[in-house]
Amino acid sequence: MLSSSASEKHNQSIEHIEQRKATIFESIHARYNKVDPNSYLRQENEGFFKYWTRRLVQIKPVELLWGEAEGTELRRALNTFQLIFVGIGAIIGTGIFVLSGQAASNNAGPAITISFVVAAAAAAFAALSYSEMASMIPVAGSAYTYAYATMGEVYKKKR
Fold it and tell me: Coiled-coil ranges per the record (predicted)?
């Protein structure tokens, strides 16, 4: 059991977190309401190519993404352990079983283990940058959302 002072501190920290969350969402809604819907329309004296070029490189603010994601019904269903192994499976795939024998016999020999360590380091850096993006833009959509928020519509993957 927690002591009464520890329980009070815990309750105060929860209240502080809830107040902070409410403040963040208020600022998101304020910014979301200031977005000009006319920015998507073609301006006067704007040529066809200039309009579409502007539209293709137009980014979506992170605040808009947060505001749109606020009412979604998606929930986190995978735990950390499951996500780690999904990521490892996606990174390694089946190529490790097909190509490692050829690489060892033709190119690297016993140094293939060093090659695996170097590749693992590169994969770790990719995973760290991906986790940084996920913490900056914590909404559903993954790479699609990150590309839209940072590089604009032209770079987002079409489905």
Answer: none
How far is residue 93's CA from residue 81's CA, in Å, rounded to a whole number? Answer: 18
Tally Cβ neighbours within 10 Å of residue 35: 14
Residue 138 has which token pair? Answer: 């914590």
Nearest to 156 by CA among 52, 40, 41, 60: 60
pTM over 0.90: no
Helix ranges restricted to H, 76-111: 80-92, 95-103
Counting Cα atoms < 13 Å in the Cβ hemisphere of 130 gives 14
Q: pLDDT tens digits for 40-53?
A: 667 788 888 887 77
Q: Where are the beta strands (DSSP E) in 9-80?
A: none
Whether the CB-CB separation of 140 and 72 falls below 8 Å is answered with yes
